[in-house]
Write a structure and sequence with these properties.
Blueprint (H helix, E strand, L loop, with lengths): L10 H11 L6 E3 H15 L6 H17 L6 E3 H7 L2 H19 L6 E3 H10 L4 H11 L6 E3 H14 L15
Antiparallel strand pairs: 1-2, 3-4
GO molecular function: calcium ion binding
InterPro entries: EF-hand-dom_pair, EF_Hand_1_Ca_BS, EF_hand_dom
Keywords: Metal-binding, Repeat
């Protein structure tokens, strides 16, 4: 966790997120694994690699990768991820990248995701449909049938910085850590 903030994320939450990003389960996140999340989201939403929102998402994820891979060896270990993850990293690079994935999933560009869009995005992010459904219900506090961009990003921010939020459900942790 970066200095200057009192909020910390538990190792259990960090391990859940790291495991989601370590697609092959070998204990390291490679650049290819990390950037493939954009490709999975685009494919899940039926968007081609040449679509402008997909290009923007790829660029935003390149920024996260450069920030996360502190020693620039092309691999991020859990220890490296543990040191990097937190509020400052989220605000510096994750918020734009996660917002760009939201934009990939927001097929009509209205700034909100339907349950179907939300679920497709979260399943492409290696969550179960059941966990995504539960997170959608928790984030859709007004029961309007949509989750707005700000609520989505706030939910992820809260999870990655404290381990507890409505988005905890997609990480298999409905009650936080």
């Amino acid at each position: 966790m970066s200095q200057g903030t009192t909020v910390t994320i538990t190792d259990a939450a960090k391990r859940r997120i790291f495991a989601m990003l370590d697609v092959d389960g070998d204990g390291v996140i490679t650049r290819a694994e990390y950037l493939a999340r954009v490709d999975r989201a685009a494919a899940a939403m039926g968007r081609g690699a040449d679509h402008p929102v997909v290009g923007a998402a790829r660029a935003a994820h390149e920024e996260v990768w450069a920030d996360m891979d502190a020693d620039h060896d092309g691999r991020v270990t859990f220890e490296e991820y543990r040191t990097w993850a937190g509020h400052d990293a989220f605000e510096r690079s994750c918020r734009p990248a996660l917002g760009s994935l939201f934009d990939v999933a927001d097929l009509d560009g209205d700034g909100r995701l339907s349950r179907e869009e939300f679920t497709r995005l979260r399943v492409a992010s290696r969550n179960t449909a059941q966990d995504a459904d539960r997170a959608f219900d928790d984030l859709d506090t007004g029961h309007a049938g949509f989750v707005g961009r700000d609520a989505y990003l706030a939910g992820i921010h809260d999870y990655v910085t404290t381990g507890a939020s409505p988005m905890a459900a997609v990480y298999g942790s409905p009650n936080g850590i």
